[in-house]
Amino acid sequence: MAFLGIDLGTTAVKALLIDEAGAALASATVEYPLHTPQPLWSEQEPADWWRGTVQAIQHVLNQASLTGSDVRGIGLSGQMHGLTPLDADGQVIRRAILWNDGRTVAECDEYVRRAGGEAQVREWVYNLPTASYTAPKILWLRNHEPAHFARLAHVLLPKDYLRYKLSGEFVGEMSDAAGTGLLDIKNRRWSVEMLAALELPKDILPRLGEGPEVTAQVSASAARETGLAEGTPIVGGAGDQAASAVGAGIVQEGIVSVTIGTSGVVFASTNQMPQPGAPGVSPLLEVFCHAVPQTWHYMGVMLSAGGSLRWFRDHVAMGNRLLKQDDGRQTTDDGQMGRPSSVVHRLDPYDILLEEANTISPGAEGLVFLPYLTGERTPYRDPLARGAFVGLTVRHTQAHMTRAVVEAITYGLRDSLELVRQSGIAVHEVRVAGGGARSPIWRQWLADIFDAEITLINSSEGGAYGVALLAGVGTGQWKTVAEACEATLRVTERIAPTKDVAVRRGYDDAYAQFQAAYPALRTSFHALAKMS
């Protein structure tokens, strides 16, 4: 028997089959287009999601030589916040408006005003809105496309549209619903107070289930289209961040995940729903429901983590040259540096840059970088924040600049990690994933700057793996989510922080300057934004 995890990303959908021991049997990824009809707009066709999902399901079944009847349960994960509007017949009204769409700044203000202020928003739904959230998108639809709003009968998040196509059921779940701005996160139900304040009918929202709860079954028509068996259980699943956390075993307090992709995410599970304004609880962290029943999570989001290093590689450090030329730095078949053999393995330009940067002492000899190339979300919530090198002198080289960029990314993640610690979570292990986790040099810097043990685990399948585990829990393979993680995941590498006092002092001094730089430059950033 197998369990199927489906993860609907922003650029592609991934299907993953695992067996009853948690081993991956087959995976497939199908891409689809992103539409940007106006500046700040980001949209997709739900039909493209479904078409890609059908193809991915068929591919993994064929790859694993399984039939639909071999799949015991299905879990769904996906990009959060997106508005998928359907009419009374279940037909898509317009393209889905995605999480990274920035058109709803005015509607965020309207949302807070209608609720009666930020304090009331925190009382009802805990988190203040951003342009990512779903509720401001519904308000935008009402304000700007009244004909479409008049047809609105169902609001679904992206992954829940897949559930609808698989089953015909309008169902959501807690972790994804927490990112709409319409969920009473403490009581894990739709906020009737917020809906009333926004003058939105509750019946446009789906019923809710928990992550491992069976919420629907595959319909006869979906079975014919996908190759799955009619009646296959579909569990609630999770939004992408909670799903990835389950896939990394972040289901108990004390273990925190840090994911370094284009953006950076710090994720910490908690058994206690924090109260707004409670001592130590930072309003700068988002608090959502976890995919684990009666569990919540803190989340800090950095908008340009690995994105900052990629920018530096491509536009400052001549990354395109490094990719296209060998520069005499090649490896032979046996992995040794030297003259090219019949098989040449080009060195990753990121590895070249980090090797050079590792020759520079912590703190980059007084050079600080601010990684706010696309604004920032945690801890500053400032879309007009900008990037900057501070402290440049003629003695600073490319190696210094690389070190400053990578340190800055890590300091930005430490900002969120410190907020988690201040909220009462004793962090004793940080599990890292994403591009930054691939470099042993960066992993050591993470351990030293975080002052925490860094670990890697045996799975890198992310959200698809997490919801496949939830499907196993929902169909009885494991009793709890924690048991599923314990049975399938193991630590493969541990990196301890250095005991070198000079190294620690160098990082701490540089971190203090990093924290001081943004407040000092905020006014200039906002003035410069008006000129761009």
Describe the structure.
This protein is α+β, with helices and mostly antiparallel strands and 532 residues long. The longest helix has 31 residues, at 501-531. Residues 323-345 have low confidence and may be disordered.
List keywords for this structure.
single chain, 532 residues, alpha+beta, Nucleotidyltransferase, domain 5, 2 domains, seven-stranded mixed beta sheet
Q: Secondary-structure blueprint of this entry?
A:
Layout: E1 2-8, E2 12-19, E3 24-31, E4 43-44, H1 46-63, E5 71-78, E6 84-86, E7 96-97, H2 105-115, H3 118-125, H4 134-144, H5 146-151, E8 154-156, H6 158-167, E9 171-173, H7 174-177, E10 183-184, E11 189-190, H8 192-198, E12 207-209, E13 214-217, H9 220-226, E14 233-235, E15 238-239, H10 240-247, E16 255-260, E17 264-270, E18 286-289, E19 296-302, H11 306-315, H12 319-324, E20 330-331, E21 345-346, H13 349-357, E22 368-370, E23 388-390, H14 398-422, E24 429-434, H15 440-450, E25 454-457, H16 463-474, H17 481-488, E26 491-495, H18 501-531
Parallel strand pairs: 1-5, 5-15, 9-12, 16-24, 24-25
Antiparallel strand pairs: 1-2, 2-3, 4-7, 6-8, 10-11, 13-14, 16-17, 17-19, 18-19, 20-21, 22-23, 25-26
Number of helices: 18
- The CATH class assignment of the largest domain is Alpha Beta
Mean pLDDT figure: 92
Structural category is alpha+beta
Strand proportion: 15-25%
CATH topology of the largest domain: Nucleotidyltransferase, domain 5
Q: CATH homologous superfamily of the largest domain, by name?
A: ATPase, nucleotide binding domain
> What's the arrangement of strands in the largest beta sheet?
18-19-17-16-24-25-26
Global outline: globular
Can you summarize the main beta sheet? 7 strands, mixed
At CATH level 2, the architecture of the largest domain is 2-Layer Sandwich
Helical amount among residues, as a percent range? 25-40%
Low-confidence stretches: 323-345
The number of distinct structural domains comes to 2
Could you give the distance between the termini? 56 Å
What is the radius of gyration computed over CA atoms, rounded to a whole number of angstroms?
23 Å
